[in-house]
Amino acid sequence: MGDRRRWILVAAVLGSGIVFLDSxxxxxxxxxxxxxxxxxxxxxxxxxxxxxxxxxxxxxALLILAGALSDYFGRKRMFxxxxxxxxxxxxxxGLAPNIELLVLFRVLQGIAGAVLxxxxxxxxxxxxxxxxxxxxxxxxxxxxxxxxxxxxxxxGLLVDTISWRAAFLINVPLILVxxxxxxxxVPESRDQTSTAHFDWLGSAIVALAxxxxxxxxxxxxxxxxxxxxxxxxxxxGVLCTIALPFYMARAPHPLIPLSxxxxxxxxxxxxxxLVIYGALYVTFYYLxxxxxxxxxxxxxxxxxxxxxxxxxxxxxxxxxxALAGRIGSRLFMAVGPAIxxxxxxxxxxxxxxxxxxHLEPQNPGTFLPPLSYVIDLLPAGIIFGLGLCMLVAxxxxxxxxxxxxxxxxxxxxxxxxxxRVGPQLAGxxxxxxxxxxFYSYVAARRTDINVNDPAFRKLVSPLNASGIPIMxxxxxxxxxxxxHLAMMVGAALLIAGxxxxxxxxxxxxxxxxxxxxxxxxxxxxxxx
Length: 528
What we know:
Blueprint: H1 3-36, H2 44-73, H3 75-94, H4 99-127, H5 130-161, H6 166-169, H7 171-185, H8 200-222, H9 228-250, H10 264-295, H11 299-305, H12 307-327, H13 330-347, H14 371-401, H15 408-445, H16 454-459, H17 474-504
């Protein structure tokens, strides 16, 4: 790999990595932020929630618009704007004097982040091809996965040893390296087929569709679906989603050309992303709750427990990406989720009486995990990680090869929006189902308790049985049953994703090559 392309890869990985890192590092710092920062209008918990969700909402709502703008105005230019914007807003967040301004700066940070995620994949698509492109996607996927998983550990270390402000300021040196690499080594590329008319109305409809669905889901869950605002936001999102294809079919220069969905691989990849990322959301969300809330793992132990499986993603993703670039993605996209399902089914056998891991960083003697971790969690994590590393890079390769080169930023943005909003919607539905299952379990065994009493539900909730003496082991057993049900749902979704990929994906030798962009000037592709 030439030096120029190596630096392009560094820029792309750092640009997207800081976006993923920020969403997890800051999550760990929220309790300290709530205690340290003064508040003008928000309560403590409300302020913490807005700090976290303001970033995710703007990031999700603007991904598709940002991807289209990158193709339209130039991927290098927009990527540089995104890096500068993310750096400036990171400094503003790190220096915020109160919680309200921090929320505002997080909104602006999410806007900058929306430019970086699809822009990073568009840079790789424009400058790599063949096996080298698959390997680049694998490195991108491995690094993104590593930053997401290691984020809580890094965040906890920064908060405990320096300050919560360091969780934001840590972005600055990474951004400076990415800025230099982008400015010096990345050639400009854009959609040469675009007209002078950008579809701003379509952009607004897309933002309302994605933002409405994301906000409605998050707000509704936070308020236990007792506040009508969550339903109103969901209704706006649903209506805009329904109206979108009708508008795009009639618009002279649509933001999202419906011709993209004529590509079999593009459509199938996005369907499988919706299903598989829904499974990832369910698995990781309920596994973390069960480990800490029911078994009694400390937060540090829960974070370290997933690292062995993550190592597969970091070290093997480039290899599977290169193989996908050489022989196609279908095999890996079918086998990977099936192996992941086996790992999730191993999680489903974990009992609520499993020995907790009380890891305390200040006490080196607690770094040794209990035997139950080696039996119940470690094998499942390894199996799951192996399947995940077989899936992510080939899925990215199939996606980016299924769209015309001049729509690389837009294609990436659509898939990223689906991977963020779809799982939240699926998670909200599954949460309602599992909550009903939990309280039904309790009600069937304690007929003297009104499980619909708000006071009871505030004290006793699914997967939160650790340290709750009420009703002895009943809450723990109900939580364990809910967790096992969640893992079965996750495994079923993964198997469904494997079937969708096996039936739907076509490898290059069995389908027409990717459409070339008319009139587009490609940067020179260097040989390995």
